[in-house]
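pls design
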C-alpha cells in the first residue's frame, strides 16, 4: 500500500505517481472535502480580475474549479513541488480548455515578485513542509497588502477513530503523526498568520470524515512502514484493522481528520514585512486576538451518519455556509 504521506513529501521520488493521482481524485470526491472547499470559497470568494495563487495545487482540482471565476482580466496560477503532479494538472487543464497556469515550484521559495497576487490559497500542503513559517513568509510576500487568503491544514494529533483498543489506537496514530514533518500546523496556523499581518481572520474547525477504505488509504501505508521499522507489531496491527472492518460491516465505523480553515486578509502594512502599523480591530471575547472562531463545519458535530449518504451532509453544509456567508460567526 502506498505511503501517501511519504509520497506527497516527494512525489517525484515516489514510484507510484498514479497512486497519488488516484488518491487525490478519491479525496476530491469526499463530501467533507467538498464542504471544506465551499467554506473556503464562501469565506474568501474570488472576484473578477483577481490574480489567485494555489500553493501546492496537486493535480489541480481546486484551480480547475476556480477557472472562469476571475474573468479575462484575472489569472489562476497553481504551483506544486512535484513535476509529475504538475504535468497531470496541465494535462487535465488542456483537456478541459481551462484557463489555468501551472508551474513547478516550492512553497518556501515562490518564484513571483512581491505583491503579485490578490488572493492565495493552500490546502493540505504545509503539513508536508519542514518549515511552514518560511512558506507563510513567502505567501505573505507575494500577496499584495490587503490581499486575501484561505488555508486549510490538518492537525495530525487530532485524528479520531472509534476503535476498540485505546492504547494500541493511540500508539498507531502517534506513529502516523510522527511521520508528518509539520503535524501541528493546523493548530499553529492562526497564530502564524496573525504574526505575519493577518487581519479579519476567521478560524473554522473542520473534520474530514472518511469511510474505512479512505481511512486505510490515508494511514495504511504509513503504519505499514512503522511495522517494517519495528515501531509497530504486525499481529496487533492486523487485528486492529480486522476490528475496524467488523465495525464497518456493522455500520459502526467512524473516523476523521481534524483541521482548521483559516481565512482573512493581509494588513495594509503587514507586520510580516516590518510594517504592522494597521491596528488589530478592537476585540471582544468572541473576536479575541483579531480573529473570529466560527462554528465547526461539516455535519459531524452532530450524530455521525450510519451510511455515507451525500444528501444529508450537503444539506447541513449549505446551512453552515449560508450562515458564514451572511457573516454570522458563532461562539467558538
Ligand atoms: C495532499 S496533496 C494536496 C494537493 C491539493 N492542494 C489538493 O487539495 O488536492 C499535498 C500537495 O502538496 C505538495 N507539496 C508538498 N510539499 C510542497 C512544497 N514544499 N511546495 C509546493 N508543494 C508541495 C505535494 O506535491 C502535493 O501535491
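designed seq:
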Amino acid at each position: 500500500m502506498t505511503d501517501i504521506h511519504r509520497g506527497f513529501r516527494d512525489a517525484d521520488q515516489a514510484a507510484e505517481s498514479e497512486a497519488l493521482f488516484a488518491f487525490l481524485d478519491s479525496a476530491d470526491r469526499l463530501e467533507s472535502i467538498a464542504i471544506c472547499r465551499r467554506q473556503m470559497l464562501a469565506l474568501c470568494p474570488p472576484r473578477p480580475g483577481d490574480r489567485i495563487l494555489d500553493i501546492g495545487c496537486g493535480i489541480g482540482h481546486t484551480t480547475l474549479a476556480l477557472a472562469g471565476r476571475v474573468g479575462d482580466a484575472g489569472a489562476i496560477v497553481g504551483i506544486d513541488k512535484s513535476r509529475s503532479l504538475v504535468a497531470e494538472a496541465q494535462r487535465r487543464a488542456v483537456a478541459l480548455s481551462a484557463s489555468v497556469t501551472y508551474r513547478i515550484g516550492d512553497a518556501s521559495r515562490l518564484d513571483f515578485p512581491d505583491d503579485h497576487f490578490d488572493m492565495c490559497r493552500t490546502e493540505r500542503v504545509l503539513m508536508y513542509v519542514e518549515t511552514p513559517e518560511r512558506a507563510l513568509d513567502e505567501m505573505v510576500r507575494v500577496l499584495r497588502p490587503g490581499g486575501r487568503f484561505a488555508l486549510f491544514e490538518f492537525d495530525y494529533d487530532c485524528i479520531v477513530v472509534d476503535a476498540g483498543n485505546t492504547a494500541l489506537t493511540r500508539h498507531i496514530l502517534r506513529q502516523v503523526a510522527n511521520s508528518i514533518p509539520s503535524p501541528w500546523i493546523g493548530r499553529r496556523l492562526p497564530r502564524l498568520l496573525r504574526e505575519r499581518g493577518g487581519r479579519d481572520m476567521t478560524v473554522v474547525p473542520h473534520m474530514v470524515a472518511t469511510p474505512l477504505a479512505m481511512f486505510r488509504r490515508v494511514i495504511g501505508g504509513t503504519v505499514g512502514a512503522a511495522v517494517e521499522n519495528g515501531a509497530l507489531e504486525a499481529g496487533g496491527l492486523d487485528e486492529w484493522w480486522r476490528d475496524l472492518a467488523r465495525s464497518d460491516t456493522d455500520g459502526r465505523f467512524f473516523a476523521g481528520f481534524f483541521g482548521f480553515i483559516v481565512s482573512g486578509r493581509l494588513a495594509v502594512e503587514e507586520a510580516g514585512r516590518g510594517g504592522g502599523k494597521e491596528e488589530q480591530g478592537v476585540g471582544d471575547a468572541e473576536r479575541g486576538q483579531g480573529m473570529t472562531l466560527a462554528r465547526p463545519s461539516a455535519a459531524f458535530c452532530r450524530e455521525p451518519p450510519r451510511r455515507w449518504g451525500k444528501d444529508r451532509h450537503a444539506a447541513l453544509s449549505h446551512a453552515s455556509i449560508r450562515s458564514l456567508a451572511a457573516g454570522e460567526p458563532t461562539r467558538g
